[in-house]
């Protein structure tokens, strides 16, 4: 265990790395070498401390330099049901990450990959019977599916596309308002539409009401990357209460408890000076799996306990009352992204 600590108080305070095992300060090189042997690394955060943000950025850069054989992959529930590719899926709600990971791992093994982490993907649609469909194209394993653009009319600001392009061994993350279908079919090894831009080429995008419930403080899932695509960052914010409760607080114009609004997510990426960032589906859909040796640790979706009875000193009083049918407990989403390590070529 390590601790980032300030040696004095004030704007000019020095930042020191303290090793709990060493019971004293350690060098940055020793710190990164020790972290490189860990399966899961959690970097804590004080939200408004820029020094910690900068130190976190140094740590992530150093860790990536130790292992560049990483791949960002996609998994779409409709491509793995009994009628793959017909854009009608009835299984997504019952397929959270703990359920799907064995299938995602099988897919990764076909490409000599080991899954390190997985999280919820982009926005999708469903009807009152929980039949799900895609709102935009999706590229999985280099194959494009679903030439649809169902967000373009009513939610144009959320109808952006994100793709992963690999050429000559180098990865490039691409964000654009609209990919032609020819680009979907030929350019990307992983891509998805229906993402909301937060930062584009160093500029923050104005955030207007729309998909993603801009002003509501809730769980959030977001990606950001450097201008040269050498670094990719994942942010997961898990709220204390539930999306429904947060929405009621927002509508009542009272103080919201827990979670972040989209402007707060945007400000976080601004503080790290990252030029590109997107918001994925969030709220109760937010979920995460992190590999820890031979097992995974999970941040589950919030669907199961999405009722808050009240608050005591800003802490929510939760109930386990189901808001979905018991036969559809443990709730998933239509698609996921996952980070995998590729075996070194010999």
Largest sheet: 9 strands, antiparallel
Distance separating the two termini: 34 Å
Low-confidence sequence ranges: 1-13, 322-329
Strand residue percentage = 25-35%
Radius of gyration: 20 Å
Looking at this protein, list some descriptive labels:
346 residues; alpha+beta; 2 domains; nine-stranded antiparallel β-sheet; five-stranded antiparallel β-sheet; 6 helices; globular; disordered N terminus
Q: How would you portray this structure in words?
A:
The chain is of the alpha+beta class. The protein folds into two domains: 1-67, no CATH class; 69-342, no CATH class. The chain is 18% helix and 32% strand. It is built from six helices and 21 strands. The chain has helices spanning 28-35, 50-66, 97-109, 181-186, 243-251, 262-271; strands at 2-6, 15-19, 24-25, 70-76, 113-120, 124-126, 132-134, 138-140, 143-145, 160-167, 170-176, 190-200, 203-204, 220-225, 232-237, 276-279, 288-292, 295-299, 307-312, 315-319, 335-342. Strands 8, 9, 10, 11, 12, 13, 14, 15 and 16 form a nine-stranded antiparallel sheet that branches. A hairpin with a 5-residue loop joins strand 6 (124-126) and strand 7. The radius of gyration is 20 Å and the shape is globular. Residues 1-13 and 322-329 have low confidence and may be disordered.
